[in-house]
């Protein structure tokens, strides 16, 4: 059960970047670059990977003009570089112009359409946005020829064929065909607008197939261009499998959740102000009051909470928070594990489970703790809310959770029913039920770990009395579910095994 394949492998026709190769690849490159920054734990990124692979296959012949790459922000070695490039949500698409400077952090594509055709057209636009001064070295001209330039080409003797794609001004076919044939010699493709000539409409694939069948087109040598770095073999650190008991909750998972959240997820925000700062303060207060068992995590969160509340600032540089977490805590002997150590949240493959699993676990634990300690949030400013744990979770997910799609789904569910939660017991049950809704939706999806298939939870083996049958139909016994959740996520069921 060691590390298996990540979302992308060397067999895919794209470049897998890492912290050490990103900058050397994109800065001062003779070609432009389109990079998908993803997170291998993000379910949406997992689903989307097949589209990105199809795209990469489709435009692999364009690479001398514009390359396609990926970088996994969930890999520990890439945490800093994703922060430097301000990657807050996954997937984020950034493009870099050819000949860009080393300080260029790229431009983010914000379009909602991420299907292959839309991204192909985005790539054409990226290329056309270059000027004559920074035009990618090997990218042919993409502008249409005027009729004055076009007519002399007809009947001209040449060693190569010239194909002219005549099309409407908003068509991408001509430009796509020009790029599709970039790697081939023996034919040059030009485009002209239909306002000049009669034409018949074809797709870019029909054009390419036709042109290639006409000619014995030689594929040009595939030499790496200056400034390009060959994709390094994708290193996968072998993970050690940690034996664990599914009926327990592991503090190592909760600590790893906080480690990832504080040092990676939030660290992509260079400053916290306004709503973000408030959400962060509330989250820290909540954890400091409800994290079970005292210990160094609670001390750290209390110190952080006191510090945040004592600051008169409306705007906090996130580096100050990191300094506090990393250094001051170490001096006073209060610290949070400095590495990710998944136990109940480990996946059978690298990239499955991990952080989102631990975030669910953390919030389940917090709802159960709040139920067990009704007065814990007094004088925190959170006591006035009916379901404070859910409300803080909702705001956290909406503001900071890297999987944007997950955040949207969660927000929809919260808007539909969270206001019906009237007490602490219902708070525990609402989160359980909502989590099961997500499990139903994701069962059988690519982010489903075969070793931990998504299914209604708890299974009969964990809690037989939670399941009942009425008139031949399965129903939950909610009283027993509540009892089970109180036990499962309660302080006495937390295992410190594998914790620091
Ligand atoms: P998880 O679902 O993460 O569960 C972790 C652990 O919690 C399980 O191992 C089990 O011990 C326990 N558990 C399972 N079900 C319940 C329950 N009903 N009540 C209490 N405990 C339970 N991914 C997407 O692809 N699309 C989404 O829209 C999406 N939305 C998300 C929203 C939120 C708020 C979060 C935190 C994550 C979301 N994810 C989404 C990620 C997804 O839900 C899983 O967390 C991820 O796929 C990892 O799955 P897992 O197998 O580790 O189990």
From TrEMBL:
Q: In the UniProt record, which is one GO cellular component term?
A: extracellular space
Q: What enzyme class is recorded for this protein?
A: oxidoreductase
Catalytic function, reaction form: 2 R'C(R)SH + O2 = R'C(R)S-S(R)CR' + H2O2
Q: Which domain of life is it from?
A: Eukaryota
Q: Does the keyword Membrane apply?
A: yes
Q: What is its EC number?
A: 1.8.3.2
Q: Where is the Thioredoxin domain?
A: 1-128
Cofactor(s) it depends on: FAD
Q: Which UniProt keywords apply?
A: Disulfide bond, FAD, Flavoprotein, Glycoprotein, Membrane, Oxidoreductase, Signal, Transmembrane, Transmembrane helix
Q: Which residues form a coiled coil?
A: none
Q: Which GO terms describe its molecular function?
A: flavin-dependent sulfhydryl oxidase activity; protein disulfide isomerase activity
Task: Using the record's annotation, list all stretches that form the ERV/ALR sulfhydryl oxidase domain.
Answer: 348-457
Q: Name one GO biological process term.
A: protein folding
Q: What does this protein do?
A: Catalyzes the oxidation of sulfhydryl groups in peptide and protein thiols to disulfides with the reduction of oxygen to hydrogen peroxide.
Family affiliation? Belongs to the quiescin-sulfhydryl oxidase (QSOX) family.
Which named protein is this?
A: Sulfhydryl oxidase
């Amino acid at each position: 059960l060691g590390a298996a394949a990540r979302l992308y492998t060397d067999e895919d026709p794209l470049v897998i970047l890492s912290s050490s190769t990103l900058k050397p690849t994109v800065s001062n490159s003779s070609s432009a670059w389109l990079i998908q920054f993803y997170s291998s734990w993000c379910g949406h990124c997992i689903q989307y990977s097949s589209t990105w692979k199809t795209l990469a296959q489709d435009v692999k012949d364009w690479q001398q003009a514009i390359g396609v790459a990926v970088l996994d922000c969930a890999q520990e070695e890439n945490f800093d570089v994703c922060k430097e490039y301000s990657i807050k949500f996954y997937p984020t698409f950034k493009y870099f112009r050819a000949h860009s400077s080393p300080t260029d952090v790229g431009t983010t594509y914000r379009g909602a359409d991420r299907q292959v055709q839309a991204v192909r057209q985005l790539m054409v636009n990226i290329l056309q946005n270059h000027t004559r001064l920074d035009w990618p070295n090997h990218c042919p001209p993409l502008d249409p020829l005027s009729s004055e330039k076009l007519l002399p080409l007809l009947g001209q003797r040449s060693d190569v064929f010239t194909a002219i794609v005549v099309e409407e001004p908003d068509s991408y076919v001509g430009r796509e065909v020009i790029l599709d044939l970039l790697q081939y010699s023996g034919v040059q493709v030009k485009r002209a607008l239909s306002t000049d000539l009669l034409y018949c409409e074809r797709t870019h694939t029909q054009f390419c197939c036709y042109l290639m069948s006409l000619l014995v087109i030689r594929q040009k040598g595939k030499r790496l261009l200056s400034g390009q770095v060959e994709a390094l073999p994708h290193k996968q650190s072998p993970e050690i499998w940690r034996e664990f008991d599914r009926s327990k909750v592991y503090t190592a998972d909760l600590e790893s959740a906080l480690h990832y959240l504080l040092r990676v997820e939030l660290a992509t925000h260079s400053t916290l102000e306004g709503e973000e700062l408030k959400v962060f303060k509330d989250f820290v207060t909540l954890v400091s009051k409800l994290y079970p068992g005292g210990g160094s995590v609670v001390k750290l969160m209390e110190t952080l909470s006191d510090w945040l509340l004592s600051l008169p600032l409306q705007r906090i540089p996130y580096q100050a928070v990191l300094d506090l977490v990393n250094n001051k805590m170490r001096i006073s002997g209060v610290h949070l594990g400095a590495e990710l150590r998944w136990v109940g949240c480990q996946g059978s493959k690298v990239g499955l489970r991990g952080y989102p699993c631990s975030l669910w676990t953390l919030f389940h634990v917090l709802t159960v703790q709040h139920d067990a300690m009704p007065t814990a949030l007094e004088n925190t400013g959170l006591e006035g809310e009916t379901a404070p744990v859910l409300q803080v979770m909702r705001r956290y997910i909406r503001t900071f959770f890297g999987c944007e799609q997950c955040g949207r789904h969660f927000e929809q569910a919260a808007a539909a029913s969270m206001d019906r939660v009237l007490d602490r017991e219902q708070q525990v049950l609402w989160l359980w039920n909502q989590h099961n809704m997500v499990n139903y939706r994701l069962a059988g999806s690519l982010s489903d770990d075969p070793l931990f298939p998504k299914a209604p939870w708890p299974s009969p083996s964990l809690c037989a009395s939670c399941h009942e049958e009425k008139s031949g139909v399965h129903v939950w016994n909610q009283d027993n579910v509540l009892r089970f959740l109180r036990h499962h996520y309660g302080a006495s069921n937390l295992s410190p095994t594998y914790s620091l």
